[in-house]
Amino acid sequence: MVQASIRSLKGKDLLWLVDYSVEEIWAILETAKMFKQRFYSGERIIPVLNGKVLAMIFQKPSTRTRVSFEVAMYQLGGYAMYLGWNELQLGRGETIADTARVLSRYVDGIMARVYSQNDIVELAKYADVPVINGLSDLVHPVQALSDMFTIWEKKGRLSGLKIAFVGDGSDNVLHSLLLASAKLGVNISIGSPKELRPNKEILKYAEEAAESSGSIIEFYEDPYEAVRGADVVYTDVWVSMGQEKERERKVKLLEPYRVTVDLMRHAKKDALFMHCLPAHRGEEVVDEVIDGPWSVVWDQAENRLHTQKAILALLLG
User: Fold this and answer.
1) Most buried one in 120, 262, 286, 311, CB count within 10 A?
2) Domain enclosing residue 79, as ranges
3) Residue 75: which residues within 8 A CB-CB, separation 6 or more?
4) Candidate list 147, 276, 300, 306, residue with the active-site label
5) Annotated catalytic residue: which of 75, 117, 143, 300?
6) In the annotation, is 113 catalytic?
7) Residue of 108, 119, 137, 140 marked catalytic
8) Exactly one of 64, 113, 258, 275 is catalytic; which is it?
9) Which residues of 294-310 are buried (b: 16+ CB within 10 A; e: fewer)?
10) Is 105 assigned a catalytic role?
């Protein structure tokens, strides 16, 4: 089954997790585990993508996405090329379709970090090489896969665990966590204001997947109820890039959803705290939590590297 899933991933796009099977997700997680183990055994370069090139298109700035993908390609024996949106002819009016066609003649894969999910879908439609969503306004699949790897690494299992996401219920990272959790049998509770709820299409797909896996999806306006009995407490920034005009409204709505020491004490005693970063300390989370005994955010950030090596190796290999 694992070998069949590995074969099915070759040449596949990663736009969101809706069209990834449970077996394909586990193939990525198992491969990430292998790469991390070999990394710490001293094998820093595993040239399975020797001579291959990844084009990285950035419409939004990044720390973790850029560095982790660039280092991942290097450690796989390949090369990653940074392409700022405004440094390409895209910034001067060339269509996404034409850009996709041209890049497909030069590179073996494209990773793009964009404002609109529609842009990543159009890029994949016209590209002849795998396209990876490094983040869009709708979803962040590479982050969610890395998060699932981190939770599995720390807890030894996924099925039956409970993640509590506290904050903006319309968050793109949450959308991908919803899909991943529902497919893998992880229970997820969302503590958010009623005005900030997930995208209806994403929630529909997640609920359908949950019916098969047994995952439970719950919503609470009270953050303390959301985290009660949680194995993982997760938050993200309240205002994402491109949402600056909504800042005042969202901060006012989300003030009660700050992750504090008191809130963490309502989760399980051995609960983990996770944040995809960058963190706005003092806003969505206090220093005592992100720097405290619950926090695994630095391991979580490192695991972007190992998970993305798995994604690149399986899709581009």
Assistant:
1) 120
2) 2-139+304-316
3) 39, 44, 45, 46, 305, 309
4) 276
5) 143
6) yes
7) 140
8) 113
9) bbbbeebbbbbbbbbbb
10) no
pTM of the shown model: 0.96
Question: In terms of domains, do 86 and 153 share one?
Answer: no
For 250-264, the pLDDT digits (tens) are 999 999 999 999 999
* Residue range 53-77, pLDDT digits in tens: 999 999 998 999 999 999 999 999 9
User: Which entry of 175, 258, 275, 304 is annotated as an active-site residue?
Assistant: 304
Whether residue 252 contacts residue 185, with contact meaning beta carbons closer than 8 Å, is answered with no
Rounded distance between C-alpha atoms, residue 309 and residue 247, angstroms: 35
10 Å Cβ neighbour count for 220? 16
- The CATH number of the domain holding residue 256 is 3.40.50.1370
Per the annotation, the verdict on 280 as an active-site residue is: no
The DSSP secondary-structure symbol of 282 reads T
The model's pLDDT over 173-216, given as tens digits with 9 standing for 90+, comes to 999 999 999 999 999 999 999 999 999 999 999 999 999 999 99
